[in-house]
Specification:
The chain is of the alpha+beta class and about 180 residues long. The protein has a domain at about 10-60 and about 110-175: 3-Layer(bab) Sandwich (minor pseudopilin epsh fold). It has one helix spanning about 10-60, and strands spanning about 65-70, 85-90, 105, 110-115, 125, 130-135, 135-145, 150-155, 160-165, 175, 180-184. The strands form three sheets. It has a five-stranded antiparallel sheet with strand order 3-2-1-5-6, covered by helices on one side. A four-stranded antiparallel sheet has the order 4-7-8-9, with helices on one face. A two-stranded antiparallel ribbon has the order 10-11. The longest helix has about 50 residues, at about 10-60.
């Protein structure tokens, strides 16, 4: 009969194992953080793409003007995208929900500060034909935690179509196709 002794790990074996684990974690952790950041950015884009698409669709299906904007406490559009954005019928274009009807509220996405590029208006309105009424506009999404998060430019053109441009190199600067430089 053979007796096997269980002797455990030596100090050298333990140190080698810990060194290998620390090297693996030092490589994997930054890659994981980058993926988490990109996941938050995808959530942001999906949220606002869905909101603008819903507003445009409601305008076409109901045959009325539809506005998307943050609302003040007295139900008036304000240019403060830290507030939830409301989508509502606005046939008289007074920037207030008709009959206090709000179809949808979009909560601000965490980890991003949203600012509008709407010529100081702070809202977008879609007409019954699906086109933006008045002027087109966009939102800039800047990371709030660190500069190692990607920023995004979320635009709606005159035709009512949504498009997004991203800061792929994490420098918080985006050069748009027509040459404009957007930065946080």
């Amino acid at each position: 009969m053979t007796v096997v002794q269980n002797r455990g790990l030596t100090l050298v074996e333990l140190l080698i194992t810990l060194t290998i684990l620390s090297v693996v974690f030092s490589i994997a952790l930054p890659a994981m953080n980058r993926e988490v950041s990109k996941s938050r950015q995808r959530e942001l884009v999906a949220t606002y793409n869905g909101a603008f698409s819903f507003a445009r669709s409601q305008a076409v299906h109901t045959g009325t003007f539809v506005t998307i904007c943050p609302l003040s406490s007295n139900n008036q559009c304000v240019d403060d995208w830290a507030l939830p954005a409301a989508i509502f019928p606005d046939q008289d274009k007074d920037l207030r929900p008709d009959s206090n009807t709000v179809w949808k509220l979009i909560s601000p996405v965490s980890n991003y500060r949203i600012t509008s590029r709407t010529g100081g208006r702070g809202y977008l309105t879609f007409g019954p034909n699906g086109l933006t009424h008045g002027a087109s506009g966009s939102l800039i999404a800047c990371p709030v935690q660190s500069s190692r998060q990607p920023m995004s430019y979320l635009g709606v053109n005159r035709g009512g179509r949504f498009h997004a441009v991203h800061d792929d190199n994490f420098d918080n600067k985006i050069r748009l196709s027509w040459g404009a430089l957007i930065q946080c």
